Amino acid sequence: MTASRFRGLALPVVLLVAASALQGCSPSRYLPGSSGNVSSGSARLDVVNRSSQSVYSINASSCSDTNWGSDRLGSSVIQSGNSMSFDLTPGCWDFRADFDSDHTSGNELVQRNIQINGGSSWTWTVGG
After folding, report:
1. What is the C-alpha separation between 113 and 62, in angstroms, rounded?
2. Does the pLDDT at position 30 exceed 70?
3. CA dihedral 107, 112, 116, 120 (to 10 degrees)
């Protein structure tokens, strides 16, 4: 192949290499509406906040667990209009999003029995 055939590939290749370098970071931040690759041995939850409020915590637990898992956001917040992604092991999951910074008002959304297979992602749009 000639050099002219590769000229238009430089930017896409750089973007692909940069995106690959970000794989495996958990939580991963993606632009709203975008998605990254999910390896076949993992699953991903993409939370898109379309509400008018910030999401202060995201909990995920196995469908068979009776307790919520730890807060996946840590000190982060998902502002209105933003999104965040979390790597998970494949399986059945329950999710909770809390819109209250002190977690006392009960202002939350829950999704239960969400099956996410290896190599795939599930997008949870909260609000809107």
Report:
1. 9
2. no
3. -30
Q: How far apart are CA 123 and CA 125, in angstroms?
A: 6
Whole-angstrom distance, CA of residue 98 vs CA of residue 7: 48
DSSP string, 2-67: -HHHHGGGHHHHHHHHHHHHHTT-SSB---TT------TT-EEEEEEE-SSS-B-EEEEEETT-SS
Write out pLDDT tens, residues 110-120.
999 999 999 99
ω into residue 27 within 30 of 0, thus cis? yes
Compute φ and ψ for 3, nearest 5 degrees. Answer: -60, -30
Encode pLDDT of 87-102 as tens digits.
Answer: 999 999 999 999 998 8
> What's the rounded Cα separation, in Å, for the pair 44 and 56?
19
Is 47 within 8 Å of 116 (Cβ atoms)? no
